[in-house]
Amino acid sequence: MISMALSLMTASLLYYGYLSSSISEFAERWTALASYVFLKIIGVKVQIHGTTLASSDFTVRIIDECTAVGPILLMSGAMLAYPTSGIRKLLGVIAGTLLLTILNLFRIVNLVWIDIYYPDFMEVAHLVIWQGIIVLTAIIYWFLWAERSDFSS
């Protein structure tokens, strides 16, 4: 239990250190670019300027909290503290990172769609529903991963 608390505290400190780093800028730009590509694929006319996505219908600026880094660190901290083999931890972190990154991109595309067609619902969707979905996904993924990991591995 102590190792879990220390691991989660370390993940939190890493996140706050991340917020003021060049890695943060990279994550924002990557998230904006990936979102731009997905929006173009589904036919949304969008332009990208740095970390801002814009069209005649919406303007979205990707900031630190728009990336999947926070939930990934939360999930990774819990996984690294769990008593199982290093390879299981590594594979779990990689799979969870992919899951949360893809879900986060879907979240951004969905929020753009909501902003275009249901702008009155945007604030609730952005600040309540999708943030909850992302954090719950990280926690549920960790629970499922931990259930399949055993202490003897």
- Largest sheet: spatial strand order: 1-2-3
Helices and strands, in order, run as HHEEEHHH
Q: What structural class do you assign from the helix and strand content? A: mainly alpha
Give the distance, in angstroms, between the N- and C-terminal Cα atoms: 19 Å
Question: Whole-number radius of gyration?
Answer: 17 Å
Tally of helical segments:
5
Q: Helicity range of the residues? A: over 70%
Unreliable spans: none
Main sheet properties: 3 strands, antiparallel
Strand content: 5-15%
The coarse silhouette is elongated
Give average pLDDT, whole number. 89
Count the domains: 1
Number of strands: 3
Describe the structure.
The chain is mainly alpha-helical and 153 residues long. It has one domain (2-148). 71% of the residues lie in helices and 6% in strands. The protein has helices at residues 2-18, 22-41, 69-81, 86-117, 122-148, and strands at 47-49, 52-54, 59-61. The protein has a three-stranded antiparallel beta sheet, covered by helices on one side. α4 (86-117) packs antiparallel against α5 (122-148). It is elongated.
SSE layout:
Blueprint: H1 2-18, H2 22-41, E1 47-49, E2 52-54, E3 59-61, H3 69-81, H4 86-117, H5 122-148
Helix pairs in contact: 1-3, 2-4, 3-4, 3-5, 4-5
Outline:
With 153 residues, this protein is mainly alpha-helical.
Provide keyphrases for this structure.
153 residues, mainly alpha, 3-stranded antiparallel beta sheet, 5 helices, elongated
